[in-house]
Amino acid sequence: MRKQLYVAAALACSPLSAVYATEININPLGLIIGSLNGNALFTLTEDETTKVGPSFGYLGLDLGDVKLTATTIGVRFEKSTATQGYDDGAFFAANAGYTSLTVEETDSYSSTNCEATATGLTATGLVGYGWYFDNGFSSRVAGGYTVGNLDIEAQCDNEAETAAEAYGGLALEWTLGFRF
């Protein structure tokens, strides 16, 4: 039994042994409105031009009678056009994720309570440019397009509705990062 545990632990850690560098990126503008989003990228090639890792997002807004909470978790793949991955240059990125959104509204005058939840899958394609500094810090900008499909359930007092909605829209990104 002990041998199987060692083999399982070695297999679980083997993908990490192929990581050449790790990069953490955060959107600083989102912090102003209560949003935290970014990604952790692990370089998988010796020239550090191919990266993959988890992406995440959280938004919590309290607008008086309306409260909004959104979370996203996904995976990101990125390919740099630079000859070395941490040279300044263009990159292409793809994100796939799962999104959950809740909106609650309480009308204090009429005692009406409404709640809507939406869950679904999203996909984003981006083209961007990154500046990498010798001390490990980076700044990156990107633009692209996001598509997704949401399953929506809404309830207002005793009335309930459901719907499925496809959507698409512009995606913009600015992140500050650090690699180690």
Automatic annotation (TrEMBL):
The protein, known as: Outer membrane protein beta-barrel domain-containing protein
Signal peptide: 1-20
UniProt keyword terms in alphabetical order: Signal
